[in-house]
Design goal:
With about 140 residues, this protein is mainly α. The protein has helices spanning about 15-35, 50-55, 60-75, 85-90, 105-115, 125-130, 135-140, and strands at about 35, 45. The protein has two domains: about 15-55, no CATH class; about 60-95 and about 105-140, no CATH class. It is built from seven helices and two strands, in the order H-E-E-H-H-H-H-H-H. A two-stranded antiparallel sheet has the order 1-2. A hairpin with a 6-residue loop joins strand 1 (about 35) and strand 2.
Length: about 140
């Protein structure tokens, strides 16, 4: 898990990437838990996703990434303003943006994560600074 999640604090995940991470997680769990013998026919079969969720009851990989990302954003917002990582997260980019759809940056992902835990209308910087950024709420679902 630590190898897969290396550097996930700064990832800007799309729905396709979230889906691919979930597929990877299920594939690893199927490898760990192995096949299951069907009680009726006696044949071996793959374990279904619901059965995997019952066997391994920790939060899925996407929720873990969102929780880590929110915790990291809290650390960054509490750092000094002159540090580079703070300026990268909180500052406005210099220069002109290329044509096309704007990239979904870390700030947008944090706002979406807060909407998921029902804190969407609040100022995300203040929520994270006071320590109620919702990372622990994401892990409970």
């Amino acid at each position: 898990m630590s190898v897969v999640l290396y550097g996930c604090e700064t990832w800007s995940l799309t729905l396709r990437e979230e889906s691919r991470l979930s597929v990877l997680e299920n594939r690893v769990f199927r490898r760990i838990f192995g096949a299951k013998r069907d009680e009726v026919t006696g044949e071996w079969r793959k374990i279904h996703n619901e059965e995997l969720n019952d066997l391994y009851c920790s939060p899925n990989i996407v929720r873990v990434i969102k929780s880590i990302r929110m915790r990291w954003a809290g650390h960054v917002t509490r750092t000094e303003e002159r540090r580079g990582v703070y300026r990268d997260l909180m500052g406005e980019p210099l220069g002109e943006r290329p044509l096309g759809k704007p990239w979904r940056g870390l700030e947008n992902n944090i706002k979406m994560d807060l909407q998921e835990v029902k804190c969407g209308g609040m100022d995300w910087i203040e929520l994270i600074r006071i320590g109620t950024g919702g990372g622990h709420l994401l892990m409970r679902k």
